[in-house]
């Protein structure tokens, strides 16, 4: 369990220190402040619900249809209620968003006035209307039930004082004749007080969860799809630019630097060792060779040459051969893979094997490459100590970001004591 301060009531209810924290009082304030709002809405609904129940009762018990004036009143009243509900729900929703901060610290998106027509056309407006009816219909019933439980518990606690010479109170289903007979009931009532505190918190948490669901503006699915498509285009363009840079370095700068290094090496052979130019030439030659190594590593970091020459399975086996622990590679791949997928999968394996060597304390690891349902599945497992967490670093957060950029997902299972399994699923769309 994390030691961070809970951000909302439902999370706080799961903590051991619930009863001694400020959360029960915040829940109580939230419930009490609901009463006037829900009460006014309930009265408004009763104007329609009361005559409707009377009409249904007449039909059910007396078998006669309701009178014409009552039907007209219900029809006109219902239409008026539905016409006014989107307008009334807007200020009520604004108040509820503000009150939700009492028990939920997570921010809600702002709710500017969208225009009169939008209140009747948008799904968000009708979700607020649904919350309006829920707040005025279901919430008062739930509060009355909870109030009855509180009054019952209060009767249990005060029963020893209520039982006197002339009083014979009925506690639950039994008449109490003396204070001594009421003491067991009072003890039970005192023990039930923490239960009622939890019940009050649960009631407030359920109400807050419904409020958050109803008052949060719905996500625009079309906009999300466009964002996903634009991200795919950006990743493709980024990968193409990486390949262009890799080709320019590999085919242009790297051969010229190799030639320069060879020329410097030949010049060193022609210059006597006691010549004043011998030492500067040797330094230049060493620097050129170091720059060649650096450039080779840079090209490898953009797109490893082994991917181009050997494919994903061969490049992964090359990584396994260079690892400091015994690595078994199992590859079951058929067909070509998109370049973005190949590059992402390669770096996933590279980073995962690097974590195994640096942090896991493992003696062996296994890499599995398979195709499943049109996706490339990469699994890297080890027999190390486990306990890997992205929050602690180890490159897992950056790895997850790289996988997400390719529209994939990363799954991690690393219980304390091991074993650790990193699973990456990458869609192989052409």
From TrEMBL:
* Annotated keywords: ATP-binding, Kinase, Membrane, Nucleotide-binding, Phosphoprotein, Transferase, Transmembrane, Transmembrane helix, Two-component regulatory system
Chain ranges passing through the membrane: 28-56, 68-90, 129-152, 182-206
Q: Name one Pfam family in it.
A: HATPase_c
Entries under CDD domains matching the protein: HATPase_UhpB-NarQ-NarX-like
Quote the InterPro entries the UniProt record gives: HATPase_C_sf, HATPase_dom, Put_sensor_dom, Sensor_HK_TwoCompSys, Sig_transdc_His_kin_sub3_dim/P
Entry's Gene3D superfamilies? 1.20.5.1930, Histidine kinase-like ATPase, C-terminal domain
The reply on keyword Magnesium is no
Q: According to the lineage, what is the superkingdom?
A: Bacteria
Q: Which GO terms describe its cellular component?
A: membrane
Q: Which residues form the Histidine kinase/HSP90-like ATPase domain?
A: 340-430
| PANTHER family membership | NITRATE/NITRITE SENSOR PROTEIN NARX-RELATED, NITRATE_NITRITE SENSOR PROTEIN NARQ
> Under which name does UniProt file this protein?
histidine kinase
Q: What is the lineage of its organism?
A: Bacteria, Bacillati, Actinomycetota, Actinomycetes, Micromonosporales
